[in-house]
Design goal:
With 255 residues, the protein is an alpha+beta fold. The chain has four helices and eight strands, in the order αββαββββββαα.
Length: 255
């Protein structure tokens, strides 16, 4: 009787131990799965839906039976057969090109052929504040003088990319009257062993992103340009508040 009780107790203990171990393993596997899903940023640059359209059959020539009359051919309805080049389906990156956004009044910026050119009044002291902005982003300067800056290699992280890129930048400054023209260029761009410097969209994405980050950091709050839409909303809000105050005062006077 005692042996039977001990055996049942031992079996129950072993069973509970196995359940705990299996639960722990399942929890770890589930956690790893969720982490893997959470780090996948492909959905931010892929087209939605399935890829069934890529399996569409090719057009076949129209066979006209004898004795059947058809309208005359017209080029308006001719289907041109072209060779598709580039990525298709989920491999196609649908993100739009990123554009430079100057945040300082009386300034302008343009992107052209791998560089952002930015003109700003000298009174904003943008050039002298760029090194501090780079340092905040862990982009360290390799060489610098009054009119040029070259950076060391730095990892650039984006929320819509699974892997960071490694890039180097060069910046130059030209004084024009009471303004300074600053040009930011990217001199190397790699992701792992892949060289991206020959891919215009990637170059634009990372050089303009750095420019926008710098502008957000160096532009003084006192000279930031408020979007027209925001100004209109603020004016509308003030007018509404004024009307409420006037109505309240009028009602109080009538009482």
């Amino acid at each position: 009787m005692l042996n039977s009780t001990l055996n049942r107790t031992l079996n129950l203990t072993l069973f509970k131990g196995n359940v705990i171990k299996k639960t722990a393993v399942l929890t770890v596997v589930t956690s790893l799965f969720l982490v893997g899903c959470g780090s996948d940023q492909n959905y931010k640059r892929e087209v939605e839906g399935n890829e069934d359209y890529l399996k569409s059959p090719t057009l076949k020539p129209l066979i006209i039976p004898e004795g059947v009359s058809v309208p005359a051919e017209s080029g308006d309805f001719y289907v041109v057969k072209t060779e598709v080049k580039g990525e298709l389906g989920k491999k196609l990156d649908i993100r739009p090109p990123i554009l430079p956004i100057p945040t300082i009044q009386d300034a302008f910026a343009i992107y052209n052929n791998g560089s952002v050119t930015f003109n700003v009044p000298l009174s904003n002291n943008v050039w002298d504040r760029i090194p501090n902005s780079l340092n905040k982003k862990n982009i360290f300067i390799a060489s610098r003088d009054n009119n040029s800056i070259k950076t060391n290699k730095a990892f650039m992280v984006r929320a819509d990319e699974n892997r960071a890129v490694e890039a180097t930048y060069s910046m130059t400054r030209n004084l024009v009257g009471d303004t300074e023209t600053i040009t930011i260029s990217i001199t190397s761009l790699t992701r792992g062993t892949e060289d991206l410097i020959s891919q215009p969209i990637e170059v634009q994405r990372y050089v303009v992103s750095l420019f926008n980050d710098i502008m957000d950091d160096v532009a003084p709050d006192s000279v930031r340009v408020v979007p027209r839409k925001a100004q209109d909303k603020e004016a509308e809000k003030e007018n509404t508040e004024d009307k409420k105050t006037a109505t309240h005062v009028s009602g109080a006077n009538q009482e």
